[in-house]
Specification:
There is one protein chain. The chain is of the alpha/beta class. About 45% of the residues lie in helices and about 15% in strands. The protein folds into 4 domains: about 5-125, Rossmann fold (3-Layer(aba) Sandwich); about 145-310, P-loop containing nucleotide triphosphate hydrolases (Rossmann fold), CATH 3.40.50.300; about 310-385, Helicase, Ruva Protein, domain 3; about 390-440, Orthogonal Bundle (Arc Repressor Mutant, subunit A), CATH 1.10.10. A 5-stranded parallel β-sheet has the order 2-1-3-4-5, with helices on both faces. A 5-stranded parallel β-sheet has the order 7-10-13-6-14, with helices on one face. It has a two-stranded antiparallel ribbon with strand order 8-9. Strand 11 (about 260) and strand 12 (about 270) form a beta hairpin. Helix 13 crosses helix 15 (about 355-370) and helix 18 packs across helix 19 (about 420-430). The termini are far apart. The structure holds adenosine-5'-triphosphate and magnesium ion (MG). Adenosine-5'-triphosphate binds next to helix 7, helix 13 and helix 15.
């Protein structure tokens, strides 16, 4: 028998019995109650660790019971059971202290996984405890799914050391946000956090940007320049879009990281530097290595710690919390938008989010710019979210699409998915950036 007692509360007796069997089979001690009052009686007598509470119950609903449980014993963790129709209310429950919510119907192994995660969190997760000094650093990193909580744990563990970190994930998954959290959680928090976007730097000036140069070392070098590795001091240098770093710099960067020293362009002497390096990319580095565009040795050196952020579609439970977070972010106390209607949330939950958190953020911001008031309704969401495949379907189903129509729609779709990021769209379309610009001009897509 595991050392955990679970109390299941639901007026649906079949569901309570099913939960009891599932949890007993996994060796948990289980108590059951059919309403809030019965649940509170049990809580007063038995040492309960976790309560699974239905949101909708007669006499005393889930919110009220949650509040009473917390008054009685702060340490009891509460999981809220909810249907799709009441997810937004379940999110409210998290704000007042529930650990998590589970959407009905759920699968047997899903509920066991949640409970196991919760048990782990109770015993070892430092980030769940808001009294931990690092906790508030995650205010901008909304996450509740197991994988994201694991990432939070990793961040806390590595924040204070000097190892290089490689952050991987599709566009808009929050790589920049995580790099900042690593910086903020550790000893560098009051030092500089410098970002270098490797994709946008002129390849000829890259070396000088990173390592600096001495006066006269090349045409235009009219005075000495200190590079970013050095000016970052003891802070963090975030190399964003690392896959775009020119090949000739890759070997120099590798050496610099290994030796913790650099040589400015034109200089003879090496200089020490102490910045921590964090790199990120949304490119498949394995493919780039296969094509010999990215050095394997640099990859291994950068990925001493590697953090892979799952796409938003793989962690949909984060969506309601993110929606709530962005509504607050854009509302700025004017209280124009009070929340999201359940049918709108359902549309949002069913969409695939190719542009990930950024696309979701833009979708909420759009509602503000449209002047929506009260709750965001399904009609306030962009057309593409309601009918994600509409572009290609209409061209073909109408049976009158020309090749150019099709190409135009595909490009529009890619631009939409990358939130207007042309470099990313070109990559997804597997065409060169210059080709993309040409086509945008030809089809007048600007
Ligand atoms: N977990 C999160 N909680 C709150 N906001 C988030 C989260 N993840 C991402 N965001 C927000 O989403 C937007 C995109 O995130 P970010 O720029 O970090 O993505 P990225 O992975 O670096 O994307 P790209 O590959 O296009 O550079 C930002 O506004 C960021 O603040
Ligand atoms: Mg980024």
């Amino acid at each position: 028998m595991k050392d955990q007692s679970i109390l299941c509360v639901d007026d649906d007796i079949n569901l309570v019995n099913a939960l009891k069997i599932i949890l007993n089979n996994s060796n948990y001690r289980v108590f059951t109650a059919s309403d809030g009052f019965e649940a509170l009686d049990i809580l007063k007598e038995k040492p309960i660790d976790i309560a699974i509470v239905d949101y909708k119950m007669p006499r005393m609903d889930g919110v009220e019971l949650l509040k009473k449980i917390k008054e009685l014993n702060q340490k009891v963790e509460v999981l809220i059971l909810t249907g799709y129709g009441t997810i937004s209310n379940a999110v409210e429950c998290i704000k007042i202290g529930a650990f998590d919510y589970i959407i009905k119907p759920f699968r047997k192994d899903d509920i066991i996984k949640r409970i196991e995660k919760l048990s782990e969190a109770r015993t070892e997760t430092p980030v769940k405890d808001v009294t931990q000094p690092h906790y508030y650093k995650f205010d901008n990193l909304i996450s509740k799914t197991a994988k994201m909580l694991e990432i939070r744990n990793t961040i806390v563990k590595i924040a204070d050391n000097d190892s290089t970190v490689l952050i991987l994930g599709e566009t808009g998954t929050g790589k920049g946000e995580i790099a900042k959290a690593i910086h903020d959680c550790g000893k560098r928090t009051n030092k500089k956090f410098n970002i270098i976007d490797c994709a946008s730097i002129n390849p000829n000036l890259f070396e000088s940007e990173l390592f600096g140069h001495i006066k006269g070392s090349f045409t235009g070098a009219s005075k000495d320049k200190i590079g970013l590795l050095k000016t970052t001091g003891e802070g963090t240098l975030f190399l964003d879009e690392i896959a775009d770093i020119p090949k000739y710099i890759q070997v120099k960067l590798l050496r610099a990281i290994e030796e913790k020293e650099l040589r400015p362009v034109g200089a003879i002497q090496h200089q020490k530097f102490s910045a921590r390096i964090i790199a990120a990319t949304n490119t498949n580095l394995y493919e780039a290595m296969k094509k010999d565009e990215f050095r394997k040795d640099l990859y291994y050196r950068l990925s001493v710690v590697s953090i892979e952020i799952p796409a938003l579609r793989e962690r949909k439970d984060d969506i309601p919390l993110l929606v709530d977070h962005f509504i607050k972010k854009f509302d700025k106390d004017r209280k124009l938008i009070t929340g999201i209607a359940d049918e709108a949330l359902q549309v949002i939950m069913e969409y695939d989010w190719p542009g990930n958190v950024r696309e979701l953020e833009n979708c909420i911001e759009r509602a503000f710019s449209l002047g929506v008031e009260g709750k965001i309704g399904a009609d306030d969401l962009p057309y593409t979210i309601h009918t994600p495949d509409s572009c290609s379907n209409t061209v073909f189903s109408a049976g009158k699409g020309t090749m150019s129509d099709y190409e135009k729609e595909i490009i529009l779709k890619a631009l939409n998915a990358s939130n207007g990021n042309k470099r990313q769209a070109a990559r997804n379309l597997k065409i060169g950036i210059a080709t993309l610009y040409r086509k945008i001009k030809r089809y007048n897509l600007n």
